[in-house]
Amino acid sequence: MTATLILGKDVSEEIYAELRQRIETLKAKGVTPGLAVVLVGDDPASQVYVRKKGEMCEELGMHSTIIRMPGDTTQEELMTKVNELNNDSAVHGFLVQLPLPAHLDEEQVINAISPSKDADCFHPSNVGRMLIGEPDFLPATPAGVQQMLIRSGIETAGKHVVVVGRSNIVGKPMSAMMIQKGAGADSTVTTVHSRTKDLAAITRQADILIVAIGKARFITKDMVKEGAVVIDVGTNRVEDPTHPKGSRLVGDVDFEEVKEVASYITPVPGGVGPMTICMLMANAVKAAERTMEVSE
Ligand code: NDP
Fold first, then answer.
1. What are the domain boundaries of the chain?
2. CA-wise closest residue to 150 among 280, 296, 279
3. What is the CATH number of domain 30-115?
4. Tens digits of per-residue pLDDT, 166-224?
5. Given the residues 81, 97, 118, 147, the one annotated as active site
6. Cis peptide before 139 (omega within 30 of 0)
7. Sheet harboring 63-69: ordered strands across?
8. 232 catalytic, yes or no?
9. C-alpha triplet 97, 102, 104: angle, nearest 5°
10. φ and ψ at 247, to 5 degrees?
11. Is 97 annotated in the active site?
């Protein structure tokens, strides 16, 4: 068997088309959805992510603000900026690009973001709302994975979903979303992590295997059930002298091997990657729509 590919570009294009219509509707009512991104320091990967977010806003006709702060920004200066954005009516959603330089307290910053503008959905009150099944926003990467499943017509109800990884950004919210009632969920979920015993015995039971650990090609063919759906969130840079850059991106799944047993699989790059920015944009549009609901 060779698995069918699920491509983030295809799924995200479908969602962008829907977002464009929602943005038009907002603009017709005099509201241009605005997303702001705060970047502290000059981490090269973060700079690329932030630039891509700004470009996507512009492509969609959204208002984009990128605030670059120096690497030696103090906690107080950053908190002042967060407060300014909380009170800026042109900014419907914003995020502070993580990771922050080591001297800054990420938790304090996340807690200070107004939950109604929390485009990343990292604020504890939004995480809690998601957990009780009443989300205002959804965390971008897990929401992107869920959309890939829904829009590829993959049944999730009653299926055994195994999530590998338990980070606050991917693994935990992913598991919490898949146990909710409703479309793209209603699953029986097992979460495994670095302290799990006989992890392969559990991954082999998965109808849908979602992997987010940050370990290159960790999931091999023998860890996957014949016909399983495999979603690879991992992005790992490995050396490759044949590549012009001397390195390339691979996932947490051994793609070449696992595609022979899976029914569906996401490649890296080109799989989950494009979905994260897409769902971030969806959160910003939703935040703008909510301000209309409040004022109507
Ligand atoms: P974290 O490092 O925060 O978490 C990794 C998780 O994997 C932890 O829960 C850890 O377990 C678990 N883990 C690590 N090693 C093993 C192992 N050998 N066996 C089982 N579990 C293990 O990473 P993130 O969740 O932030 O990211 C995971 C991957 O996804 C990374 O490659 C990241 O780059 C990628 N990513 C991709 C995105 C995209 O848009 N495509 C967005 C976000 C992330 P424990 O808790 O026990 O330590």
1. 30-115, 140-273
2. 279
3. 3.40.50.10860
4. 999 999 999 999 999 999 999 999 999 999 999 999 999 999 999 999 999 999 999 99
5. 97
6. no
7. 63-69, 34-40, 93-96
8. no
9. 70
10. -155, 165
11. yes
